[in-house]
């Protein structure tokens, strides 16, 4: 009889079979690449089961006879559940097996897609889409844990921002997939439900790939800690007197003022991110009078520019500031403030070049702080044992900002006009600069510290 050994969902303890010193570099190189590729592809496909609904909204609303308010409820429920779930998942992921946590999350999210398109009740669709948000929240916390355990502090900014580009790759990938599905639907070759079940099938297969590819921490494979291998000391180490997981959360998350500061900073980042991205099409079409085709093309400039924007920010942080994020964040945010105001005042059909350049700059400049503040910089002000929970907390505040960017900015625009909306985004960048500056001295400390 063949027996299949299912790995534990709990964090794998250090292996007693230590890797010989002469084999450590080769083994580390192999597993670092394997973990990075696995996490990158995995998170890309997470977005296949998250953003597949966006390009298909006109088709879905027509088939299910859902109005704009109901679509808004569907979106809001997802963001609320995802934000809360990301924080909760973060607390569990710190003590969980990276391999199992990420694979199970993607598998469960994908299973929902196999049948949600066949539901005819709005309440059931909202419920299961919210449940999808809960499973989606299991995607990034294990990645955060993987990044801090497999990559040292001085190289982490580059690797983190490179991996963070996976969400943009996933957004564009599923956009192309859904466009192809809609084309097949128009030809009568598939049902409209395919916008759900095809990404679901891809997700299930990718979950199996993650199960095969990923592992847990280096020590679970008999390797040393990454800081020992790279001779790169951690900025913070766990106090010897701190034993329980609750003590870790309390000491290094809930009473860590720098985590609260970065969480608030991330909230402002998400106000800008979703405010500029989600409202740009309406602003350009209704206010500036640009045609729909051009508006659609302009909209793609922001996420496209975001990929190099985030990667360049990470590279500069590692190259010139030894992984410190505050300096490059401040530079990006200052330039972002002027780009937002320039877009509002100078975009229009008679200034096509300025319109395009402004959107490119906004996209380029928002992704740097977004990736660094909620990820790399957060990892530099807490211990490795709490990184998933820390990123979960900053992520939760980010989605508070995302919620405000919809309801709050709509109210501001209605009450004070579009100038009020874009001044709010510019002001958010200024508030974010102030908050980032409050972490400057703490992040500058390159010795081993305890909070």
UniProtKB/TrEMBL annotation:
Example GO CC term: the record gives: endomembrane system
For this protein, the record's InterPro entries field holds:
MFS, MFS_dom, MFS_trans_sf, OPA_Antiporter, Sugar_P_transporter
How does the record say this protein sits in the membrane? Answer: Multi-pass membrane protein
The record's subcellular location field reads: Endomembrane system
Can you give the residue ranges of the Major facilitator superfamily (MFS) profile domain? Answer: 35-444
Membrane-spanning intervals of the chain: 31-48, 68-88, 100-119, 125-148, 160-182, 194-214, 258-276, 296-317, 329-346, 352-374, 386-412, 418-440
Entry's Gene Ontology molecular function annotations: glucose 6-phosphate:phosphate antiporter activity
The protein, known as = Hexose phosphate transport system regulatory protein
Instruction: Tell me the organism.
Output: Polaribacter irgensii 23-P
């Amino acid at each position: 009889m063949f027996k299949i050994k299912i790995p534990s969902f709990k964090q794998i303890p250090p292996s007693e079979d230590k890797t010989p010193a002469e084999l450590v570099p080769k083994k580390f190189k192999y597993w670092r690449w394997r973990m990075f590729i696995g996490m990158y592809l995995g998170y890309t496909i997470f977005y296949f089961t998250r953003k597949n609904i966006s390009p298909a909204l006109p088709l879905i609303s027509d088939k299910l006879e859902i109005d704009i308010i109901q679509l808004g409820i569907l979106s809001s429920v997802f963001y609320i559940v995802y934000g809360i779930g990301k924080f909760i998942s973060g607390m569990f992921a710190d003590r969980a097996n990276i391999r199992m946590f990420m694979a199970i999350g993607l598998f469960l999210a994908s299973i929902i897609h196999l049948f949600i398109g066949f539901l005819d009740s709005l309440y059931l669709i909202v419920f299961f889409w919210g449940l999808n948000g809960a499973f989606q929240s299991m995607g990034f916390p294990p990645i955060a844990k993987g990044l801090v355990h497999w990559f040292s502090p001085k190289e982490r900014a580059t690797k983190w921002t490179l991996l963070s580009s996976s969400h943009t790759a996933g957004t564009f990938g599923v956009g192309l997939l859904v466009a192809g599905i809609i084309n097949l639907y128009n030809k009568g070759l598939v049902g409209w439900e395919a916008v759900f079940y095809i990404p679901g099938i891809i997700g299930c297969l990718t979950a199996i790939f993650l199960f095969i590819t990923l592992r847990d921490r280096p020590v679970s494979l008999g390797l040393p800690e990454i800081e020992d291998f790279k001779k790169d000391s951690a900025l913070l180490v766990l106090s010897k007197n701190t034993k329980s997981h609750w003590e870790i959360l309390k000491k290094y998350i809930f009473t860590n003022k720098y985590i609260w500061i970065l969480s608030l900073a991330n909230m402002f980042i998400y106000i800008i991110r979703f405010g500029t991205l989600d409202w740009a099409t309406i602003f350009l079409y209704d206010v500036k009078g640009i045609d729909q085709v051009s508006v659609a093309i302009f909209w793609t400039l922001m996420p496209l520019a975001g990929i190099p924007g985030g990667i360049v920010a990470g590279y500069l942080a590692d190259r010139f500031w030894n992984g410190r994020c505050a300096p490059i964040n401040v530079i990006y945010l200052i330039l972002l403030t002027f780009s937002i105001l320039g877009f509002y005042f100078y975009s229009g059909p008679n200034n096509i070049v300025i319109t395009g350049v402004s959107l490119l700059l906004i996209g380029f400049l928002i992704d740097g702080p977004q990736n660094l503040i909620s990820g790399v910089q957060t990892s530099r002000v807490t211990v490795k044992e709490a990184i998933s929970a820390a990123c979960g907390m900053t992520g939760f505040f980010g989605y508070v900002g995302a919620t405000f960017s919809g309801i709050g900015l709509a109210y501001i625009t209605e009450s004070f006009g579009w100038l009020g909306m874009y001044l709010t985004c510019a002001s958010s960048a200024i508030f974010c600069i102030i908050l980032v500056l409050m972490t400057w001295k703490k992040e500058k400390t390159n010795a081993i510290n305890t909070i």
